[in-house]
Design brief:
Elements lengths: L6 H4 L1 H4 L6 E5 L2 E9 L5 H18 L19 E7 L12 E9 L5 H14 L9 E5 L2 E9 L5 H15 L1 E3 L4 E5 L12 E10 L2
Helix pairs in contact: 3-4
Length: about 210
């Protein structure tokens, strides 16, 4: 079996950036995704996250079963990610009920649509949950982005986004869309808010 893939080592540039802004070109990747709206502190959001992890671990642990996907290799389960936007742009960004999101977990290259459906069916039998009906497998790329590591509370992220915006202006880049991606490297249930690490990223293009 090939060497184990650990995202913190194999894809360090994508998941462990510095605490200052940088420009990066993000490749296409596979994700299991769930769309939703509302407060990320809600039970609904928590249930959706649980199902993403349930499916992701079903894929990871499949090597212990009789049905192992062709090309399987050992890897560390990737962290939770989210793309965030506002339902109504005219409302305050502090109104968490106004959020809309796509939360996701990256998947190994060997996971095909056919095998995803098998793991989805297995998970539905073991842990029935309505949020499994919303889960889909798809490919996504961020392309050219500005990113940085944010350390601290989620509520303090605007300070890091301001740094990113200023950096882009200095380096001759402009932000292309209002949505942004967050990659969660810390468990908020077990980590002090001041020590949490979150990768922040938004799409950019070179200004003329």
């Amino acid at each position: 079996m090939a060497e184990k893939i650990d995202y913190k080592k194999t894809f360090k540039n994508l998941y462990l950036p510095k605490t200052k802004p940088e420009i990066i070109d993000v490749p296409k990747m596979k994700f299991i995704m769930i769309n939703g709206t509302g407060d990320p502190n809600s039970e609904e959001f928590e249930k959706a996250v649980e199902e993403l992890y349930a499916l992701s671990y079903a894929v990871k642990m499949s090597y212990k079963t009789k049905e192992v996907p062709p090309g399987f290799y050992e890897y560390t389960v990737f962290p939770l990610e989210g793309i965030w936007d506002l339902i109504d742009p005219s409302l305050s960004e502090k109104d968490k009920q106004n959020f809309k999101y796509t939360i996701m977990i990256r998947q190994p290259d060997f996971l095909t649509d056919e095998w995803f459906e098998k793991f989805l069916a297995q998970t539905k039998k073991k842990k029935p949950n309505p949020f499994l009906e919303k889960a889909v497998l798809g490919e996504m790329t961020d392309g050219l982005c500005c990113q940085m590591m944010h350390k601290g509370s989620y509520d303090d992220e605007p300070e890091s986004f301001t740094k990113m915006q200023l950096y882009c202006e200095e380096q001759g880049y402009i932000r292309t869309i209002n949505t942004h991606r967050e990659i969660y490297l810390s468990d908020p249930r077990r980590t002090d808010a001041a020590k949490m690490k979150t990768v922040l990223r938004f799409n950019v293009e070179k200004s003329i």
